[in-house]
């Protein structure tokens, strides 16, 4: 498949008014700055459009003729097309790799956040359970002095611990 660049060297068709041509050229390319417009008419070759298919290239060429400038269609050599395609594919692969790395980093940060929240919640539950155990011990001591029935006190604290944490603790089978 042939591709073309539309080039322009600042030449105006001989039968056209230069001021009118410059005005129409500026409108066609949305150029508001007079200094920028003058660079197009400096005599240096400028590529106006790149990698055009044959039909689009012919249409752009005709539009330039209608404006009143001498444009040229330059066929892009197949080697250059292949090189540009490789460059495009390389840029695309780099963008994909960058997006994948950003996504992996986002996932890692999300996992860290979740782990931190889970650890904070577990620590909070542990603190709350410890406070409940302490409160239960204080309550028990106010009801039953430490010297009274040590076995009953131990069983009672084990049950209080189970209520506080939902965990029996050591699997002794005793309550």
What is this structure, in a nutshell?
The protein has helices at 18-28, 34-40, 54-67, 78-143, 150-165; strands at 4-12, 46-52, 69-75. The chain has 175 residues and is α+β, with helices and mostly antiparallel strands.
Secondary structure blueprint with pairings:
Layout (H helix, E strand, L loop, with lengths): L3 E9 L5 H11 L5 H7 L5 E7 L1 H14 L1 E7 L2 H66 L6 H16 L10
Antiparallel strand pairs: 1-2, 1-3
Helix pairs in contact: 4-5
Helix content: 55-70%
Biggest beta-sheet profile: 3 strands, antiparallel
Q: What is the structural class?
A: alpha+beta
* Rg over CA atoms: 41 Å
The oligomeric state is single chain
Q: Which range does the strand content fall in?
A: 5-15%
Low-confidence segments? none
With strands numbered from the N-terminus, the spatial order across the biggest sheet is: 2-1-3
Overall morphology: rod-shaped
Average residue-wise pLDDT: 86
Order of secondary-structure elements: EHHEHEHH
Distance between the termini: 86 Å
DSSP strand count: 3
Describe this structure in words.
The protein is of the alpha+beta class and 175 residues long. It has 5 helices and 3 strands. Helix 4 runs antiparallel to helix 5. The protein is rod-shaped.
Note the main attributes of this structure:
single chain, 175 residues, alpha+beta, 3-stranded antiparallel β-sheet, 5 helices
């Amino acid at each position: 498949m042939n591709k073309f660049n539309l080039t322009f060297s600042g030449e105006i068709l001989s039968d056209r008014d230069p001021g009118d041509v410059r005005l129409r050229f500026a409108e066609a390319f949305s150029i508001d700055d007079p200094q920028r417009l003058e660079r197009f008419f400096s005599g240096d070759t400028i590529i106006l459009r790149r990698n055009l298919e044959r039909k689009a290239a012919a249409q752009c060429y005709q539009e330039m003729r209608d404006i009143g400038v001498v444009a040229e269609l330059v066929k892009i050599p197949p080697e250059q097309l292949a090189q540009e395609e490789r460059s495009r594919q390389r840029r695309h692969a780099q963008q994909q790799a960058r997006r994948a790395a950003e996504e992996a980093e986002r996932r890692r940060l999300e996992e860290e956040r979740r782990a931190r929240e889970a650890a904070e919640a577990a620590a909070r539950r542990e603190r709350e359970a410890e406070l409940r155990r302490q409160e239960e011990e204080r309550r028990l001591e106010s009801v039953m002095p430490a010297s009274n029935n040590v076995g009953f006190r131990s069983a009672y604290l084990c049950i209080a611990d189970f209520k506080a944490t939902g965990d029996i603790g050591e699997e002794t089978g005793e309550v």
